[in-house]
Amino acid sequence: MELFEEVKNVKIREYLLHQQLNRFYISVLYRKALESKAEVLLELGVEEGVSTIALLSACSLIEKAHLWSVDLAPCLGAKTKISELGLESFWTFTQIDDLEYAKTWNKPIDFLFVDTSHEFAHTKKEIERYSPYIRKGGVIFFHDINRHGVARPIYDCFGANPKDWTYETILKPDLVRPYPEYGLGVLKRD
Ligand SMILES: C[S@@+](CC[C@H](N)C(=O)[O-])C[C@H]1O[C@@H](n2cnc3c(N)ncnc32)[C@H](O)[C@@H]1O
Predict the structure, then answer these.
(1) Domains in the chain: ranges and CATH
(2) CA 75 – ligand 1 centroid, Å
(3) N-to-C CA span, the chain
(4) Overall pTM > 0.85
(5) Residue 7, by phi and psi: left (phi above 0), alpha (psi -120 to 50) or beta?
(6) What share of the chain is helix, strand, coil (3-state, %, to 5)?
(7) Averaged over 21-50, what is the pLDDT?
(8) Residue 112's Cα: distance from chain center in Å?
(9) pLDDT, position 87
(10) Average pLDDT value for residue range 184-189
(11) Closest residue to atom 14 of ligand 1, CA basis
């Protein structure tokens, strides 16, 4: 199977293929979102919008799917690129601290992607605030699981054998390569 093979829009496919050369995790995120047929997706941490565009590309192929994203920064580059690629109808962006945003959030989540501060106390609060909204069968993806600030809160919140959740490392961190991969982990609500 070719990467992003379902994406027929040439501009979007070229963008994704180019980006995944040094951010392989985006092709994994895209595929997982597409396969899960997630309708409610939430992304914490946008920056230049690379993961956002991967998730939006999946949304564009799933009936009724929509991605909500938040970031402390205005993410102007991401906004411009998303509108250039014609993906804005699948996206709602809010510039806000994600812990503040959690106070207003009220929807069951199918697919949550966490990629913000990678700091222990903050990541722990993200898990505590958002995990109650993950529906059965829903998932929380974490980027940068090589970081103590990401891996440890997963363990702290759910323990070695989490009840009602299953943890899996989807992409192992591999720092010894030209473009290091910091790893993707997923918690699935059983
Ligand atoms: C690693 S970048 C995100 C990269 C993006 N997910 C990707 O893969 O292309 C982290 C982003 O998280 C944002 N961030 C950090 N702390 C945050 C917080 N408390 N609330 C919302 N966004 C935050 C930063 O502003 C930054 O843009």
Answers:
(1) 10-189 (3.40.50.150)
(2) 10
(3) 28
(4) yes
(5) beta
(6) 40, 25, 35
(7) 97
(8) 6
(9) 98
(10) 96
(11) 116
